[in-house]
């Protein structure tokens, strides 16, 4: 749940050109926690103490209730302009940006849009074949990434050492360069093709490990680490794609459903790893095929680099319709300006990114 909120708030509080940076920084902190876990487990050698020491810091998140602002975009689309105005002015003050009085008075959100946002549910996707196709593609990519990522997390470190603590630590360490590399790649080359290439590389390396002779074990170690690096990089982009293709009214619901489906694939991952008792190469082949399938599914999604977030279902339905599977069309940095757009004959909030430029 915390990860969902973090992913949604992160993209809604910054302009499109900063999405790549925010996502990469979040995952860098994640990898830090990843590496701390085996160190804590090694120091305590007691699962109860490990659970206590890793869970207790979560209590700090309760403080966020008083300090973490709600997304102004969410507040506006839910008819809560006064609260949104207060938060926007606070953000502008911190960033030393002057905004005109009555800024939000120019933004008209129809009652129909407010009601739709307040009652938003995933079943609304069924009314749009194109939107449903995009969502199913995201689900496939997410599930494949989850299975391969956690499968390699459970086993990749064991290619380096028999020490479970060091193996898990090195498995997390390799993710640091992955997030540092994918940051500029996402910013300059978009989301679709970097995700496709990363998942194809991860799949190819997993399948290749299955045919590496035992006498060149060092090469298996190299491929395992590169596969983990690639799938970690693609997982970073998948969060971005899911958040940037879903409309505001369904963004939280869609990402929550993606995580639920991803958790199902994570549940079966240990069973896939256990197949090594029958054939030590079988798990690698399965993970390789899953990664390749997930990479192909990315081609059914539109490019979202520097695109304004869709606010309504109507906007999400129109977004990306001109994209073909072979498209490579990147949008340059948008002019950051407060503006009102027309959506299905109704005025709605589109983008107020200058307020968040330095946040």
Task: Compute the number of helices.
Answer: 15
Largest sheet features: 2 strands, antiparallel
First and last CA, distance: 24 Å
Taking strands numbered 1, 2, ... along the chain, how are they ordered across the largest sheet?
1-2
Indicate the percent of residues in helices. 55-70%
The secondary structure category is: mainly alpha
Average predicted local confidence, pLDDT: 81
Spans of at least 5 consecutive residues whose pLDDT stays below 50 are 335-359
Write down the overall geometry: globular
Number of strand elements: 2
C-alpha Rg, in Å?
22 Å
Q: Helix-strand pattern, N to C?
A: HHHHHHHHHHHHHHHEE
The assembly state of the depicted protein chains is: single chain
Beta percentage is: under 5%
Structure commentary:
There is one protein chain. By secondary structure, the protein is mostly helical. The protein is built from 15 helices and two strands. It has helices spanning 2-12, 19-44, 47-55, 64-67, 72-77, 81-94, 111-118, 129-155, 164-173, 175-189, 192-209, 217-245, 251-274, 282-297, 313-318, and strands at 339-343, 346-351. It has a two-stranded antiparallel sheet with strand order 1-2. It is globular, with a radius of gyration of 22 Å. The two termini are 24 Å apart. The relative contact order is 0.17.
Per-chain topology:
Blueprint: H1 2-12, H2 19-44, H3 47-55, H4 64-67, H5 72-77, H6 81-94, H7 111-118, H8 129-155, H9 164-173, H10 175-189, H11 192-209, H12 217-245, H13 251-274, H14 282-297, H15 313-318, E1 339-343, E2 346-351
Antiparallel strand pairs: 1-2
Helix pairs in contact: 1-13, 2-3, 2-9, 2-10, 2-12, 8-9, 8-12, 8-13, 8-14, 10-12, 11-12, 11-14, 12-13
């Amino acid at each position: 749940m915390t990860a969902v909120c973090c992913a949604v708030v992160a993209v809604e509080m910054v302009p499109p050109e900063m999405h790549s940076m925010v996502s990469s920084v979040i995952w860098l902190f994640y990898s830090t926690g990843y590496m701390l876990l085996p160190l804590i487990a090694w120091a305590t050698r007691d699962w109860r103490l490990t659970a206590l020491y890793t869970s207790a810091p979560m209590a700090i998140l309760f403080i966020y209730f008083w300090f973490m602002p709600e997304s102004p975009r969410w507040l506006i689309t839910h008819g809560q302009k006064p609260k949104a105005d207060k938060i926007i002015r606070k953000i502008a003050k911190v960033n030393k940006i002057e905004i005109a009085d009555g800024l939000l008075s120019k933004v008209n959100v129809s009652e129909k849009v407010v009601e739709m946002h307040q009652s938003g549910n995933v079943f609304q996707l069924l009314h749009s074949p194109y939107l449903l196709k995009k969502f199913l593609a995201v689900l496939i990519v997410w599930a494949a990434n989850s299975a391969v990522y956690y499968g390699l997390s459970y086993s990749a470190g064991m290619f380096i050492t028999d020490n479970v603590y060091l193996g898990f630590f090195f498995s997390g360490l390799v993710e640091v360069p992955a997030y540092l590399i994918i940051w500029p790649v996402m910013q300059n080359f978009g989301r679709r093709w970097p995700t496709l290439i990363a998942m194809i590389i991860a799949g190819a390396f997993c399948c290749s490990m299955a045919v590496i002779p035992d006498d060149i074990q060092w090469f298996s170690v190299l491929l395992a680490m590169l596969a983990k690096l690639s799938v970690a990089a693609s997982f970073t982009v998948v969060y971005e794609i899911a958040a940037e293709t879903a409309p505001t009214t369904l963004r939280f619901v869609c990402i929550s459903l993606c995580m639920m489906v991803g958790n199902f694939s994570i549940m079966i991952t240990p069973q896939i790893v256990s197949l090594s008792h029958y054939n030590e190469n079988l798990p690698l082949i399965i993970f390789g095929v899953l990664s390749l399938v997930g990479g192909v599914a990315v081609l059914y999604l539109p490019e979202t680099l520097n695109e304004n977030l869709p606010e309504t279902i109507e906007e999400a339905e129109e977004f990306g319709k001109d994209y073909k599977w072979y498209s490579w069309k990147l949008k340059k940095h948008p002019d950051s300006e407060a503006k009102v757009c027309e959506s299905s004959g109704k005025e709605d909030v589109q983008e107020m990114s200058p307020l968040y430029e330095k946040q």
